[in-house]
Amino acid sequence: MSFKIIVDSCCDLTPALLHNSAFCKVPLTIQVGPHTFVDDDTFDQANLLWRMKESEEAPKTSCPSPAAYLEAFDCGADDIYVVTLSALLSGSHNSAAQARLMFLEDHPGVRIHIFNSCSASSGEVLVALKVLELAQSGLDFNAVVQQTSRFINEMGTLFVLETLDNLRKNGRLTRLQSLVTGTLKIKLLMGATPEGEICKRGQALSMKQALSKMVELMAKDPAHSGRTLCITHCNCLERAFQLKEMALKSCKFGEILICETGGISTVYANDGGIVAAY
């Protein structure tokens, strides 16, 4: 049985992985003032970072339309797996669900499952890679869905940002968090709840301390041993390698993958942000 893995563009797969014909990416769109960025191969990260820095308004993001997902579904595959960013953070999952209902009306023999990653960026990458691993191993559709769903429930996501301006502008932080971080320059170590909401996991006075606390949290989790750690960075490759070295010393990951933020992840991670999932 042929299969396809469709991801939204918050899934920050490496260019090499995107060349794998098993993957297809559906782009979201970003609006900064009068400037529009499509999160596809035309995306210019440096330009987006500059426009966000210059704008006093929050950047706005638009999820893919059901029509965009419908076009991606028309790929000739028997089994289609869709990975979206957290349904609590974007309408991408809902658009995919609407498209699924419409597509199956005309293609009743195709099987489609939509995974709510309950995460973003690095988390989506790991979910997509898990689907690829399981589907390539020859498991049937239901087994792939069941095991991937279990993987999502057990996955951890952590992130620390150089600046929280975009999260603040978009109302993702409480007023108290905005006041404290803005006044004292505190770095918040954030994470995702099991449902996919953003939550605070700690704080530090510097980025290096925040990364150290991130590694401490991962090392304390007995379930991390042997897993893949995916580190996604926004314009800070050196910082990503620093986190990798810290994790190699303190943790027991089986593999560490480094990726770069695409457009949507760049909006929320902002310049210097690090997202890690395992």
Automatic annotation (TrEMBL):
InterPro entries: DegV (IPR003797), DegV_C (IPR043168), DegV_domain_contain (IPR050270). PANTHER family: DEGV DOMAIN-CONTAINING PROTEIN DR_1986-RELATED, FATTY ACID-BINDING PROTEIN TM_1468. This is DegV family protein. Keywords: Lipid-binding. It comes from the Bacteria. Signal peptide: none annotated. The lineage of its organism: Bacteria, Bacillati, Bacillota, Clostridia, Eubacteriales.
